[in-house]
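Data availability excerpt. The first of two example chains:
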Amino acid sequence: TKPATIILDTRSPAEFGQGHIPGAYSVGLGGQFASWCGTVIDAQSRMILVLAEDGQVDEAVTRLARAGLENVIGYLVGGMTAWQKAGLKIDTVEQITVEDLAKQLQANPELRVLDVRRPGEYAAGHVPQAKNISLSELEQQLEAVERGVKTAVICAGGYRSSMATSLLKRHGIGELVNVAGGTAAWIKAGLPVQTEAASCSAS
């Protein structure tokens, strides 16, 4: 079988949220780009890049190669501006602030919060009622994500949560918002935090 061709959107979470190609992966060049691409993208995949500016293509290709991802077959010239000018379909992910999240949690008991940080980060302090599935496990644990309810996805600062929304959308899970600023902004705003005692069981 021929390797899959994927769209890799390397812009910031906010830019991705404002408008992206349906089905694209969001992994921003601004963060730990190579290591996260290596985690979520199959090494055989052929990649078409979407960049904030065309001049970033060499940097993106070089950093992908470090993660063993060498099948970049092209990039979208003129980026999303060109795509939108051509009248092609776009998808969006609503970006909300931590204050918005706090208000929405009070107003809507159905709202779910999905924290995609590592278990140790989650245990050290998270949004009350947030469910933890770390980003690197997300595609293996899709059945644990509730469908048909609005879900706010959060991480430490908004980078991994944007990746998570893009992965979930690829699997048809749609009612998602990305929490800008993440748990760091939540704590800084003085909002309530839950911590977990480290479990001592053998599991």
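And the second chain:
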Amino acid sequence: MQKFDLSAAWEDVKRLLGAHPSLVWAVAGVFLFLPQLLVSLVTPAQDPAATSALPVEQQLALMQDGLWQILPYALIAGIISSVGNAAILRLWLSRTEISVSDAIKTGLGLVITIFFIQLLSGVGAFFGFLLLIIPGIYLSIRWMVATAYAVDMNE
């Protein structure tokens, strides 16, 4: 197994972004930026001056209610973003010519896999941060490429 070189990966990303900038920005705009914009539009606005005068328990209750209101939208945006992330990775990592629709189909097929990768890496990094800061940072960096690996193995 070949050792991962982060600087070589960064150079590859810069080269691939330079080779297909309009395509990558179009896919990123639809699948990454637009869902987050829509979530921010449905997020209820709160007046900080009015809520700061409330007791902490009421502030937490208001925050919790707001989070429950946006949870379905945030989950949908997360799923759409995962599909877009996988599609962009498929476009970049493909060894042959691939269409955008095939890349999106790959992303749709990997939604559950990406969810579990993110869940497991998040839980592992959380426990690493509980031990000390350094193990959490180390685990976060090590698992950063797990989604790209899953997309690449799906070819």
